[in-house]
Amino acid sequence: MLYAYELHCHTNEASRCGEVSGAEQARAHKAAGYTGICITDHFFNGNSGIPRDLPWEERIDLHFRGYEAAKEEGDRIGLQVFFGIEVKPLSLAAEFLVFRLPREWWKAHPDMLEWDHETFAMEAHRAGGFLIHCHPYRQAPYLPPTVYLYPDCVDAVEVINCRQRGSQAAYNRQAYEYAKKYDKPMTCGGDNHGSARVDYPMGGIWSPRILRDEEDLCELIQNRQHFLKGTQYLFDDGI
Ligand SMILES: [Zn+2]
Ligand SMILES: [Zn+2]
Predict the structure, then answer these.
(1) Sequence-ordered strand ranges (E) for 71-182
(2) pLDDT at residue number 42
């Protein structure tokens, strides 16, 4: 028996580009047969929907609202909901999915928007964080044309991203080769921003066991006990 978990998912409570609420994401993934999802809304240095002029701690609390909405609905309908954040340190190209860091850690570092990728990775790891470099080869208007890789900063690489962006399959294949070259655990992420369309691509991983929490999820990936969903996106540019 294998259990489906989505690792990369957005809500309109916290991501400016999110099209549906956390509760709707929970319902959509439950309907699609998932056991659990990770809500990974964009942080303040990315496409965040949280007002900039509020006190730092209040901004962090508001950021958590997408996750909380999904969790509340997930608890009701029987879907596990885990927490992560998609960060883009110093507004450069690379984006990391960050797991296993509590709300207090985010609140304790109001200076983190000034951190570069190495500093962010060092601080996050020191606190027990787990970092996945998502869509490392993506080319898009909001990213500079250069690809930045941080093999020593990340714990895993998202080699399959299911969100359509130009030559998506080619970006995914390059990410796959990169992870192989540096012997990094590989992940897949739907990068689902929500849509009324039922066939909106969903990704993630298959787990051979029901996971307890974020800690368990990261261990599973670290120990490479999971299988990739979405392998068709290595060949297919999607919808
Ligand atoms: Zn987005
Ligand atoms: Zn994303």
Answers:
(1) 80-87, 95-99, 130-134, 156-161
(2) 97
